Each structure stands twice: as structure tokens, then as C-alpha cells.
Automatic annotation (TrEMBL):
One of its GO terms (cellular component) is cytosol. Belongs to the RfaH family. PANTHER family: RHO-INTERACTING TRANSCRIPTION TERMINATION FACTOR NUSG (PTHR30265), TRANSCRIPTION ANTITERMINATION PROTEIN RFAH (PTHR30265:SF7). The keyword Transcription applies. The gene is rfaH. InterPro entries: NGN-like_dom, NGN_dom_sf, NusG-like, Transcription_antiterm_RfaH, Translation_prot_SH3-like_sf. NCBIfam families: PRK09014.1, RfaH. It comes from Salinivibrio kushneri. This is Transcription antitermination protein RfaH. Transmembrane segments: none annotated.
């Protein structure tokens, strides 16, 4: 009977591990999401693994040995609880497949603010101040416009420190 397990892979070698595991008859899955990244001053859409360095592997332990999976090129080891690999519920795999790269999920994860949108600064020295979202400044920061001394001033702030204005 086929079971799903979680494998820890070497850094940036999920694709290599997947290729080598598939040659052994092991089903593999790792969720991919599209994220916006700022590269050379331009926003680009890049595909990245949702869980870097991890891959789900489905196989029948009677047909494929644990040691051959564990010693596959690109794989470090099973994620374990004590001495035994942890079995992953098939429902979790199916749920990840259905929500993979869903626009609503991506917006919730990366706070998809639009230029000109009114936001509230939640943390830091400007906490409680309303501002206008100007643009993204990398993966984790953004540029806001705030009114200081009757003049609009740019403020670079972490995305985690702002929320949609009420």
C-alpha cells in the first residue's frame, strides 16, 4: 500500500531529487508558487517552492526500500519522529495541490497592496499613521507616502508593519 512521506533535500536540489526518485518509481510533489521579486529595479514573477528544501514522496514500502529513497542523490533524509519516518496524510497533499498558486493565497501571503491604496502603519515610530502605498521595495519592504510638515515624504518600511486602512 502506498504511503506519503516528507523528505528533506539538499539546498536547491529538489528538482534533482525529484528526477532521481521518479526513476525509482516514487511519486513526488512539492508545491510551487509564483512570487513577485524586485530584480535590477524591475518586478518579475518567479516560481519558487512553497517549502524550500522539502519534497513529498509517495511509494509502497514493500516495493521501494526506505534506504534507497534516503540515499537518493539530492535527498538528505526523511523527516522523522524518533526512528520512524512520519507518514503524511493524502488529504493534505490533495489540499496543497488544489490551492497551489491560487491568487487569493498569494495575496494573503504577500499582502498584495496596490499603488495608491490607503494603508495604516501598525508598528515602529510611525505607528497609527495613515499612509499611501507607492510601490514594493524588494520582497519584504515597500515604499509609502506620508504627510510630514505639509509635504509628502517617502518612507521605506517592512510589509509586516502595515495593514489595509480601515
Amino acid at each position: 500500500m502506498k504511503h506519503w512521506y516528507l523528505l528533506y533535500c539538499k539546498r536547491a536540489e529538489q528538482q534533482r531529487a525529484e528526477q532521481n526518485l521518479k526513476r525509482q518509481g516514487v511519486d513526488c510533489y512539492y508545491p510551487i508558487v509564483t512570487v513577485e521579486k524586485l530584480r535590477r529595479g524591475k518586478c518579475q514573477h518567479v516560481e519558487e517552492p512553497l517549502f524550500p528544501n522539502y519534497i513529498f514522496a509517495g511509494f509502497d514500502p514493500d516495493l521501494v526500500q526506505y534506504t534507497s529513497v534516503r540515499s537518493t542523490r539530492g535527498v538528505v533524509d526523511f523527516v522523522r519522529q524518533g526512528a520512524y519516518p512520519i507518514k503524511v496524510d493524502l488529504a493534505l497533499i490533495q489540499q496543497l495541490m488544489t490551492i497551489e498558486d491560487c491568487d487569493e493565497q498569494r495575496d494573503a501571503l504577500y499582502q498584495g497592496f496596490k499603488p495608491g491604496q490607503s494603508v495604516m502603519i501598525e508598528k515602529g515610530q510611525f505607528a497609527g499613521t495613515e499612509a499611501i502605498f507607492k510601490e514594493k521595495d524588494g520582497e519584504k519592504r515597500c515604499i509609502l507616502l506620508i504627510n510630514m510638515l505639509s509635504k509628502q515624504t517617502e518612507l521605506h518600511i517592512d510589509n509586516a508593519d502595515i495593514s489595509a486602512s480601515r
